[in-house]
Specification:
about 90% helix; 4 helices; mainly alpha; elongated; about 160 residues
Length: about 160
């Protein structure tokens, strides 16, 4: 699925999740029963944000589509702010703060894992290059040795 379609689908999912959360809170449902809806919202928000970031990096020529994705990302930031206020003023400020701390831990762990994977890839490439250089040097030495032996035999005969 292309990023624009994925972003549009994710945006619709996020809007539905926000509407469900807001309705449930108004009806007085326990916030702990809404974990799935919060998860859907934040997953969809991430998809839209990634699509917005991808478009900015690739220099999307279709300005209308790029603007649509950016506007969706902005709308979801505003929706997140509304959810934050509903939780805080609804008596769950510690829940929001805990979520932010946990999200930061997850992002940091993911970033660290990505850095480690990048370092491991670079190390593997360097090892392969070194092995190729050693093999190349060995082949060169063998060829030069063969040429020298050939020249010496020719000179002796």
């Amino acid at each position: 699925m292309d990023p624009i379609t994925a972003a549009a689908t994710a945006f619709a999912t996020a809007q539905a999740a926000v509407a469900g959360i807001q309705k449930a809170i108004k009806l007085g449902k326990d916030i702990n029963q809404l974990v799935g809806e919060f998860g859907k919202f934040f997953d969809a928000k991430d998809v839209v944000q990634k699509a917005a970031n991808d478009k900015a990096k690739k220099g999307q020529s279709d300005t209308g589509k790029a603007m649509e994705i950016v506007m969706q990302a902005n709308a979801l930031r505003e929706a997140e702010e509304q959810l934050k206020h509903q939780l805080i003023y609804g008596g769950y400020p510690e829940l929001w703060e805990q979520m932010l701390r946990e999200r930061m831990k997850i992002k940091q762990a993911r970033a660290a894992a990505e850095r480690e994977a990048k370092i491991a890839r670079r190390k593997l490439v360097a090892q392969r290059m070194f092995a190729a250089q050693i093999i190349g040097a060995a082949i060169t030495v063998v060829l030069l040795g063969a040429i020298i032996v050939f020249i010496v035999r020719q000179a002796m005969s």
